[in-house]
Design goal:
mainly beta, Methanol Dehydrogenase, Chain A, 4-stranded antiparallel beta sheet, 1 helix, transmembrane helix
């Protein structure tokens, strides 16, 4: 009798061990996945795609928001490259000059600030400056050019930057750097051009809310470094530290960076939940030390955190800290935050590498 019970105990013990082995194996895999996901998930590993562009010495490359198209300049000519077809699908007429350009956030359209003969259809055969919207279709391979708005002739000799459109209001914002002044302009759907900054104010960085339509911007120089929020007739100051810079607006949050003696030391966030916050409540997102120079660019990441590109290095920044992920020279990001691009270019062509973040 005792021997029979002993056999049963041994048998059930073996069954228990057999059942526990796969359970422990699964649990161990899950623990390893949490502690070290890159070692277990091939999908999480960085994926790289290589592209060759038959375009020498490209400058100012910009990726569309859906990551299908690349706009760039080669020499004086503006072109659009299709990553799916791996070819250039459009080039700007060489009789015209692209002063600046920017992809729209809500559709595959490139806004082009042009100068040249016939740019303004109301003035055929005459020199003009204006904004054109180029609608690009990847499936049909078409590019439809529409005239959006005329601009003053004086704009052809200026530097236009910070181009941003709010889909909520269809208002376009951009800054114009002249000889002694940096101004912020607004263009509405009726093609009316309006300057927002006041006399003596110099605009530096700006970001536009895609939902509320608020434009946030820095004033520098004699403006005592204010950061303003403007929506329609309402204009309020949200920060007064001259070291603060508007970095961008992502995921319904405004990101403001503190730059001290050539280093980005803090990043603050503010919820974009009202037209113009009169009593802003900033939250500290990150604190550390990352180099900052005149060429520095900040972008959102699709997963979590921000990318900060300086002249030499690209950093990933999050509340957990910062780390180097690539070289800053000849690199740029996609606005979706999904990809990091690095390229080498010379007189024979351009080699472009796209890395999944």
């Amino acid at each position: 009798m005792t021997f029979r019970w002993l056999k049963r105990i041994i048998a059930w013990s073996l069954v228990g061990i057999i059942i526990q082995i796969p359970i422990y194996y699964v649990l161990d895999r899950q623990v390893q996945h949490v502690m070290n996901p890159s070692s277990l998930s091939p999908q999480a590993q960085a994926q790289t795609n290589q592209y060759t562009l038959d375009a020498p010495n490209i400058i100012n490359p910009l990726v569309s928001f859906d990551d299908q198209f690349l706009a760039f300049r080669s020499g004086d000519q503006l072109s659009i490259y299709d990553f799916t077809k791996q070819s250039v699908i459009w080039k700007l007429d060489q009789t015209k000059t692209a002063i600046a350009y920017q992809w729209l956030p809500d559709r595959n359209a490139l806004l082009i600030f042009e100068s040249g003969i016939g740019v303004n259809p109301a003035l055929p055969g005459r020199l003009g400056v204006g904004i054109h919207s180029l609608e690009v279709s990847g499936n049909q391979g078409e590019a439809i050019d529409r005239f959006a708005s005329p601009l003053p002739l004086s704009f052809q000799k200026t530097q236009i930057s910070n181009i941003s459109l709010s889909p909520a209001t269809n208002l376009l914002y951009f800054s114009v750097q002249g000889q002694n002044q940096s101004n912020l302009y607004e263009v509405d759907v009726m093609k009316n051009l309006r300057r927002l900054n006041r006399s003596g104010e110099h605009v530096e960085y700006l970001a536009v809310s895609p939902v509320k339509g608020t434009v946030y911007y820095n004033l520098k120089g004699n403006s005592n470094g204010q950061t303003l929020a403007e929506n329609g007739p309402t204009r309020v100051q949200i920060a007064s530290n001259p070291q603060d810079k508007v970095l961008g607006l992502w995921n319904k949050k405004l990101y403001l960076g503190t730059v001290d003696q050539g280093y980005l030391t803090k990043i603050w966030t503010l919820s974009d939940n009202q037209p113009s916050p009169k009593r802003p409540d900033f939250t500290l997102f990150w604190e550390g030390k990352v180099p900052w120079d005149q060429s520095s660019v900040v972008s959102n990441m699709a997963v979590y955190g921000l990318l900060v590109r300086t002249e030499k290095t690209v950093y990933q920044v999050s509340p957990q800290g910062s780390k180097v992920i690539g070289k800053g020279e000849n690199s740029f990001f996609s606005p979706s935050g999904k990809y990091y691009y690095a390229f080498s270019t010379d007189s024979s062509g351009t080699s472009l590498k796209r890395v999944v973040l």
